[in-house]
Amino acid sequence: MIVRKADQVPAAAVEQDGAKGVQMRMLIGPEQGATHFHMRRFDVAPGGHTPHHHHEWEHEVYVLAGQGVAVCPDGEKPLAAGDCVFVPPAREHQFRNTGDQTLTFLCLVPRMD
Questions:
Q1: Which of 30, 31, 57, 96 would be 49's cystine partner, CB 3.0–4.6 Å?
Q2: Which residue, among 51, 43, 41, 42, has the nearest Cα to 20 in the 3D structure?
Q3: CATH code of residue 47
Q4: Domain residue limits at 67
Q5: Half-sphere exposure of 3 toward its Cβ, with a 13 Å CA cutoff?
Q6: Confidence band (pLDDT; 50, 70, 90) for 113?
Q7: d(CA 2, CA 75)
Q8: 38-49: b or e for each residue (b if 16 or more CB lie within 10 Å)?
Q9: Among 67, 99, 72, which residue's Cα sits nearest to residue 86?
């Protein structure tokens, strides 16, 4: 079993086209021996956003802090601490910070390595 402090995991800037003010921490991933799922934490600065994109796997998101919107083909869905999001496979999506504090969320995805 591995127990670690999320704030002590190094953050890396998300460099994908369309990302602005986003950092990611791989909380649980290949280096910890995760064989099925990866747990990532994203911090989106005020005015920042993840890339508008899609992929062939589902993922689940849990908002820890801040305010924002999840952008999808159906429009914008407001987000705040305590909200859960399911993004189906192949669904266009983006997360935008609409507040004045960092939008922080966990994102769980299938193993991708």
A1: 96
A2: 51
A3: 2.60.120.10
A4: 16-110
A5: 0
A6: low
A7: 39
A8: bbbbbbbeeebb
A9: 72
| Neighbouring-strand partners of residue 5 | none
Residue type, 36: H
Q: Which two tokens stand for residue 66?
A: 């801040």
Provide Rg for the chain, Cα atoms.
14
Give the three-state DSSP class for 32. helix
Q: How far is residue 45's CA from residue 97's CA, in Å, rounded to a whole number?
A: 7
User: What would the pLDDT profile of 33-89 be if each residue is shown by its tens digit?
Assistant: 999 999 999 999 999 999 999 999 999 999 999 999 999 999 999 999 999 999 999
- Return the pLDDT at 111: 85
Cα 71 to chain centroid, rounded:
13
- Tell me if 1 is assigned to some domain: no
The pTM of the full predicted model, rounded to 2 decimals, is 0.94
Whether residue 33 is contained in a domain is answered as yes
Domain count for the chain: 1
Amino acid at the residue 45 = A
Residue 113's CB is within 10 A of a number of other CB atoms, namely 6
